[in-house]
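Following the same procedure, sequence and fold were stored together, as reproduced here:

>
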Amino acid sequence: MDTPELTEYESAPSIRVHKLSLIFFSETTHFKLIEYKSPQYEELAFNIIKNRLIKLGYPPKTSDFVYDPSFPLRGLWFDRLYGTLLKMDQFGNILSCLRGFNFIQRNLNDPDTIGPPLVSNCKISRKKYVERCSNENKQFEAKGELKQRTLANISEYVERDPRLCTLLDRLRVNGAKVFLLTNSDFEYSHAIMSFILGGPRPDGTTRKWTSYFDYIVTDARKPAFFQEGTILRVVCQDTGQPSIGHHMGPLETGQIYSGGSCEVFSHLIGARGKDVLYVGDHVYGDILKSKKTVGWRTYLIIPELANEIYVWKKKKSLFDELQKIDNNLETIYRLVN
């Protein structure tokens, strides 16, 4: 199903850029400044984890599992005891419950009747399965297998949009300073940013990717960056290695830094929380920590929202009918009492 692009009025409210001192762009593993091609990128990560589990001794039939891009990605809770996925509303009420891809009926949701038999028949607990999958996810990120596979075929997994160069330049022309903050190391960041920003501009000219940013920080280790942080170092762009010792002087445009903390950077650049707009897509690592800890303004990117709005508009009459039914039920229950 083709999803039309959102207009500027549907995708975001108006932001007065001239009132902001800094605009931060997060570039960690998903759709922020860099747009990874979906579902190719997620499928790559899925297959890497799947193969690693087989090497750990899981059944070879594990390789038969196929990534389903239509399955929900956000707003899910995993019950480690019973091995179920829970969809919750904003008040913590359970809306639906799934085991695998199968919905559990409400008349089978009594844990005293269905839970113990299921758990007792498992040779390995559901919790153990989740911990192993989570651990393998962390391992291939730490060892860089996903990043290595991405760089080996970068055009297959990363989008290149020539309008991005114009966007970054316009932000700076309007008086804002642009900051790139990433958990990735210099080698990966340099390769990716060179691909998306190092190509020919609309006027035919080319520029070094670092020229589009006032400040650049790699190996930020968010969300720790917003708390205790790490040592701030200068990165040698020839070797890609951080220097020994702390960086104590002012931050320089065109230079690349490693580590640090929000407190140190705010002091060096003289920015207060309300002066900063932070763009990211990770609710915990990007949005909650940056807003609650340091008071930054936040801009949350939700790629799935475009399709959600499209479906809502296309089926609006059905949603309106459901709302009428809910209102009628509310009236009936009120009269009964």
User: Anything to note?
Assistant: Residues 6-21, 113-122 have pLDDT under 50 and may be disordered. DSSP finds twelve helices and eleven strands in the chain. Residues 40-152 form one domain.
